[in-house]
Design a protein that fits this description.
The complex is a heterodimer of chains A (341) and B (242). Chain A is α/β, with parallel strands linked by helices. In chain A, 21% of the residues lie in helices and 27% in strands. Chain A has eight helices and 17 strands. The two termini of chain A are 26 Å apart. In chain B, helix 4 links the parallel strand 4 and strand 5. In chain B, helix 1 crosses helix 7 and helix 4 packs parallel to helix 5. Chain B has one domain: NAD(P)-binding Rossmann-like Domain (Rossmann fold, 3-Layer(aba) Sandwich), CATH 3.40.50. Helix content of chain B is 44%, strand content 15%.
Chain lengths: 341, 242
């Protein structure tokens, strides 16, 4: 599927492929049609993680140019990250030179910040845990000053932080935009409210989607942290009890909710926790009824996740249809709603 | 609104009313972040509060700069969590002595609007979406009586404050019923550096102290902000003493 090269000015006009799993059919709609596709009593759950500039250019102690892309902040304050060789987003990740191998204890500098490798993680010497010397306001200010939003070679110009925020983000936990929510304007969200669709949020630390290294990509997504407010747990329970549907905005919300339920015997428990749940064919969702997401290619981990909601042949047929109709993929592309009518 | 544990962001917090507001919010148990252009002054203000055992952070950004907006919101929310209260206090007069409109450079007029109106618009836009999702939040616009009265020579500042207040009313109208509230506050004449820049010959003994004004504003937030109509205009002088 052709990738969308740049954020659009009027995302509500974007296309929406509506897949009805039980009806075994799909149809073409627009993002602006969402209020007519959801029902009074449904609950839309969004990931309110803001996107921070997680692409950090730097040099090793020997002076070699590298890029460090942060994946996640760990509970002890260290960060999981992926090393790239020289260059930046303009070069396809799979064509980037490999970074030098940096063993545990190596010190280097990114965006002016001294940092040290504290662990090299399987399955690749490029997947590391690092500790910055700075913390708190000094660390965050420097990351925001020198970092850039993670972006890929299908985009056409440097992205600003303004391009990668949803309309409702707060804490900077996401290293890549929780992009399913990018088309949701407040015009649309308030229209959904008037329709009787309620809105709830959680914060899920969405990590990198791709590194260009097949071995590493197979290890994604890594375990990810989420914070589910008690009010969201209450809204989910009330919605389900009243026969309403839980509609996740993005695969990160599915992972947060289903992962949390899986850890607690099917119960959604509020608070912060890490999930390593991987969704795919055969997984039976216990919390979520459907999801709004981007257009995902067969073979991607996002596409595998969709198979927990709709049968693979239907997804393949729908994706082929979307491709033929010129739907655009990736973070600024068109949308897909997997939900029964 | 109970302030214990609430996340509060105050712009223009290195001195004057902004610094006093940050201090009063912190002393009422809020987790505060102050923003100002000058890092050492801002850091000193935050450090003084930390020395009292309070949670306060200082960050250096220019609210008139578009690229600073998500940086400052990102740093602030990473430090204190999703914001519950946003205080637009930062503002500039433009060149002093205050010129007549006929003598005001177009660029100076534009710059005042950029800092005093466009900055708060951008910052509000970056912050209140999350407040709406969570169903609560408060935005305070620190204004001036120059928003209402046409005092000669106060041109660009006066226009910016009038626009800021109208922006507050518009936000309130568009987000009515969401739980996010907007209040415009006229703090009155205070003994601040801005006041002495504007009116160097004023008798300082007749001016209110920013600490007292901040105490009244923070007390109002605690006691009445949820019962006042969103979009209201309040005068600090007529607020109950703290």
């Amino acid at each position: 599927m052709k990738p969308a090269p740049w954020p659009v000015d009027h995302p509500e006009e974007g296309r929406l492929l509506h897949i009805e799993p039980h009806g075994r059919r799909f149809s073409d709609a627009r993002v602006a049609d969402l209020p007519s596709l959801l029902r009074d009593g449904d609950l839309l759950v969004v990931n309110d993680a803001a996107t921070f500039p997680a692409s950090l250019l730097g040099r090793t102690a020997a002076g070699e140019r590298i890029e460090l892309r942060l994946l996640a902040r760990e509970q002890d304050g260290t960060w999981t990250a992926v090393l790239f060789g020289a260059g930046d987003w303009r070069k396809r990740t799979e064509d980037r030179p490999l970074p030098p191998v940096l063993p545990v204890g190596s010190r280097f500098t990114v965006v002016g910040l001294p940092v040290q490798i504290v662990e090299v993680l399987p399955p690749s010497p490029r997947l590391v845990r690092v500790a910055f010397d700075e913390d708190g306001a000094a660390l965050w200010s420097a990351l925001y000053q020198g970092g850039r939003p993670v972006q890929y070679a299908h985009t056409v110009a440097p992205l600003s932080l303004w391009h990668v925020q949803t309309g409702y983000g707060a804490r900077p936990w996401a290293t890549e935009a929780p992009s399913a929510g990018l088309p949701l304007t407040w015009n649309l969200l308030l229209a959904l409210r008037r329709r009787g669709v309620r809105l709830a949020s959680l914060t899920h630390a969405a990590g990198l989607s791709s590194t260009g290294d097949a071995v590493l990509d197979a290890a994604l997504p890594r375990p990810e942290r989420s914070d589910i407010p008690a009010s969201t747990v209450a809204q989910v329970e009330a919605t389900r009890a009243a026969g309403g549907r839980i509609v996740a905005v993005g695969t990160t919300v599915v992972r947060a909710l289903e992962g949390r339920a899986e850890m607690n015997g099917g119960q959604l428990v509020a608070g912060e926790a890490v999930t390593d749940l991987l969704l795919g064919p055969g997984f039976v969702p216990r919390v979520v009824h459907g999801l709004l997401t981007g257009m995902h290619e067969p073979g991607s981990s996002h596409h595998a996740l969709l198979q927990a909601f709709a049968p693979s042949p239907l997804l393949k047929e729908a994706t082929a249809h979307a491709e033929a109709r010129g739907y655009l993929g990736h973070e600024f592309g068109d949308s897909c709603l997997v939900l029964d009518a | 609104m109970k302030l214990t544990g609430r996340a509060v962001l105050v712009t223009g917090a290195s001195r004057g009313l902004g610094r006093a507001l940050m201090a009063h919010f912190a002393r009422r148990g809020a987790r505060v972040v102050g923003v100002a252009r000058h890092a050492p002054e801002m850091e000193a203000a935050a450090e003084a509060l930390r020395a009292e055992g309070l949670e306060a952070h200082g960050v250096a950004y220019d609210v008139g700069d578009k690229e600073s907006i998500y940086r400052l919101v990102g740093v602030a929310t990473s430090l204190v969590g999703p914001l519950d209260v946003l205080v637009h206090n930062a503002s500039i007069l433009g060149p002093t002595p205050l010129p007549l409109l006929l003598d005001t450079a177009c660029e100076d007029f534009q710059h005042v609007l950029e800092v005093n109106v466009v900055g708060p618009f951008r910052l509000t836009k970056a912050v209140v979406g999350n407040m709406v999702v969570r169903g609560s939040g408060l935005v305070l616009n620190i204004s001036s009586d120059a928003a209402l009265s046409a005092y000669p020579r106060w041109g660009s500042y006066s226009v910016s404050k009038g626009a800021l207040e109208h922006l507050g009313r518009l936000w309130a109208a568009e987000l009515e019923g969401t739980g996010v509230r907007f209040l415009n506050i006229d703090p009155g004449e205070m003994d601040t550096r801005m006041h002495s820049d504007a009116m160097p010959e004023a008798d300082r003994s007749t001016l209110a102290r920013p600490e007292g004004v901040a105490a009244r504003i923070v007390a109002m937030v605690e006691r009445r902000s949820e019962s006042l109509p969103s979009g209201s205009r309040l005068e600090a002088a007529s607020l109950e003493a703290a």
